[in-house]
Amino acid sequence: MLLKRVDDKSKRLALLEDLQRSSLLDARQKTWLREELGRLRKGLQGEQESAYFLDQYFKVGVNHVVLHDLRFAVDGDVAQIDHVVINRGTGMYLIETKNYAGDVSINAHGEFTVNYGDDRFGVPSPIEQSHRHERILHRLLERLDIKGRDGGPLDCYHVVMFHPKAIITRPKASEFDTKNVIKADQFPSWHGKFVDKELGLGKVLKMAINVRSQDTIKEWGERLIRQHRPPNLLDLPTFMQPKAAPVQPVPIVTRPPAVQAVSLADGSTQGGQFQQAKASLTSAGTAEPFVQRPAAAGQPTAALNPACPMCQSSMVRRTARKGAKAGAEFWGCSRFPACRGTR
Length: 343
Hints:
The chain is an alpha/beta fold. It has helices at 10-20, 27-58, 126-143, 187-198, 200-210, 214-226, 275-278; strands at 2-4, 64-74, 77-87, 92-98, 103-106, 112-116, 119-123, 156-162, 167-169, 181-183, 259-263, 269-272, 315-319, 329-333.
């Protein structure tokens, strides 16, 4: 009976693939991302292939409950178990999946090495990994009151399944026992041998004592599913947080200062904000440079005259003709009436 399928990790895969296209990653981030994507893709493929073989074998059975892809957190410890199979009498099978399609070597010390052509690297022992998961799982089972009829803990049997195309080189059985390390497609034949030869008379008697109904093991499976704590698919290490794009400096626009209005002899007024200069502002918000213009004919040279406070052109000396300041001299912009700057 299948109770839980492999979790959907498409969001995690999409996040990593999108992040891979970022132009803001440094060398360390690129390396981590490439390796994490490889692990995720291989893990997903391995879990799905193993789940397929297990489902095909147990789908019509009434003595087993199958749960794929479980993650438990107990007292700060985490157990990520690829597959759990609960049997009505024998206990639980804890199955670890390793999707290595190359040559897998196991030495007399239980050390695992994988070879892909010229690439050779060691991998953590999946057997030891499964035993660590068992210790965490037993704490959880005790709290959930899942145990045998004799009051003792359920027996756990560890199985490691490699890719069907893997070539497994093993040590002598007397040096290190690898009978529970199999290829994914070999599970049916392995299980038949395990039940027939490995349990033994004592185990069979214990199984007869502890046998539970299908409804009971189904209810146990549902309790475990409620304890499943999937990881945050969008979580990234601190060093993988994308860096902000460099901020481009914003050009500072300086505006000509306001000048005090001056009454001219003809009654008009010069001064105020320089309206004509606004027309030279570009759409980007920067001002066009002003061009120094020569003084009008007959006037002193620009080098001797002050610059217009509004457009920086040379100024000429003028005399007010009308108003309260009639007869008074002042500096007026040589571009008058286009510019009405005064001093």
